[in-house]
Amino acid sequence: NLSARLTAAAAYIPKQARLADIGSDHAYLPTALMLEDQISYAVAGEVVEGPFEAAKKQVNKLKLNDTIQVRLANGLDAILPEDQIDCIAICGMGGTLISEILDKGFQKRQLTGKERLVLQPNVGEQTLRKWLAAHEYTIVDEAIVKEDGKIYELIIAEKQETVPHYTEKELKFGILLSKEKGPIFKEKWQKELEKVEAILASLAQSQSNQEVKQAQMMDEIALIKEML
Ligand code: SAM
């Protein structure tokens, strides 16, 4: 049984996809999808020995060795041309790390632009959206879910014929999320607002001269308030 977070990611993986799950850990995502006959082939990539062994164990236990390849590799090095991967999932890492993995894969041409990207950054969503926009990806879908009191965003991207232009605001708050303004979105940014306001208050109390920082925080507060 997948967690709410990975269930949300699974919903964006096309039927019968050839999936590469990078940073797969226990290979929960590809094994669950394969058992449900939702995907036709998968590569589970892991760069750390422990999680790599855990992924192998899980795939062996479920007897999915024929259709799921577990590989010890850094980022998109796990993908070989003959895998004919058409969907790449990178979940449960920071947005900066996901961007770096994509960037290396882009430079090494492991990322062809034909794959759907199913990305779930834990933090640093803006950094990730900026990378996608700079590399002419269209953000085709977004979701926001809550699990064990934590809020996670999902970003689904594809290359399309037309190159979109995103505003700074969209890159920060999400292209679709900022339009929908759902309850979890509002909760996330309300919390963020309270956090920035608390920091600003403590800065005001300290004697040091931090006017630039204070001004930045007031801008940030105004920006978030506009969204809520
Ligand atoms: N994707 C799973 C999920 O969402 O539940 C596991 C998330 S786990 C927190 C992140 C995993 O990514 C770790 O097992 C870590 O070893 C792996 N990882 C980090 N950097 C990586 C890289 N450059 N290439 C492959 N795996 C990586």
From TrEMBL:
<dbReference type="InterPro" id="IPR029063">
    <property type="entry name" value="SAM-dependent_MTases_sf"/>
</dbReference>
<dbReference type="Pfam" id="PF04816">
    <property type="entry name" value="TrmK"/>
</dbReference>
<keyword id="KW-0808">Transferase</keyword>
<dbReference type="GO" id="GO:0032259">
    <property type="term" value="P:methylation"/>
</dbReference>
<protein>
    <submittedName>
        <fullName>tRNA (Adenine22-N1)-methyltransferase</fullName>
    </submittedName>
</protein>
<dbReference type="InterPro" id="IPR006901">
    <property type="entry name" value="TrmK"/>
</dbReference>
<keyword id="KW-0489">Methyltransferase</keyword>
<dbReference type="GO" id="GO:0160105">
    <property type="term" value="F:tRNA (adenine(22)-N1)-methyltransferase activity"/>
</dbReference>
